[in-house]
Design goal:
elongated
Length: 311
Amino acid sequence: MPDPARILRALIRPFRPRLGAPATDRLPSGVPQGRTLWRLLAHSPQALFGTAVLALVAGMALSAGWWYPDDPLAMAAPPLLWPGEDPAFPLGSDSLGRDVAACLVHGAKVSLTVGLVAAILSLGIGLTVGGLGGFFGGALDDALVRVTELFQTVPSFLFVIVLVAIGKPSVTVIVSAIGLASWPVIARLVRAEFRSLRETEFVLAARSLGYGPARLIFREMLPNALPPVIVTTSVLVATAILIESALSFLGMGDPNVVSWGSMIGDGREQLRTAWFLTALPGGAILLTVLALNLVGDALNDTFNPRLRGTR
């Protein structure tokens, strides 16, 4: 007589990610792995453009201290030099004589840091709240849903302004405020994914084998719920950059660092006479957010088997 445990292991084995698995293997949700993912992304011109722009911005941020080791807020040039007017300051200077190129490069570091760390914070809170509610259900799920709805009733930007106004305007406070305001989107998405996954065959088979909640959540369900979460995270990074820029534009940014938003805020008074002071950081924000959205759309097309089959 066949062993029931062996039959269950055979049923669940195809659905579990394995180290060293071939690139053609897929998780139940249709997520491509390894070289297959890169091959699918490489066929999208939008994804290639977005990846190239993000790589350029990331390289600029990582090498900011090498290109411009001095303080970008230092007054190093005559005020209001236009781009190309002085070879030592290729992008000109602002009304206080600060090098626009140095501010732009160091601003990329601050803006990307805020976007990435805030998105990671939102991801951690959202995965915890949504995963616990979607897996256990019942009273715990109801309580977590009520908390999520409570956070969603307050406009996120207004909530961030209140938190930053209460605390000292600094990068740490801004990142924490954006992360605390953005997690409900992830939580609702993860909850919906877990509610749909907990009744699937491979999860039921894992339960029959006696796997505990931790094994079911982290090894069986979470890898299959990540694709839409990854796509949403790319949007959260772009949103965090925009929120930080808006805060800096309103004068609520960290005064000890330079960001693209603070550059726009400082240059708005010279918008008619020195428009490049707002156009250059504004263009950097536009390209970065556009690149993040293009990469997010490409990831959505790649992770979604229905869209992938129609293109």
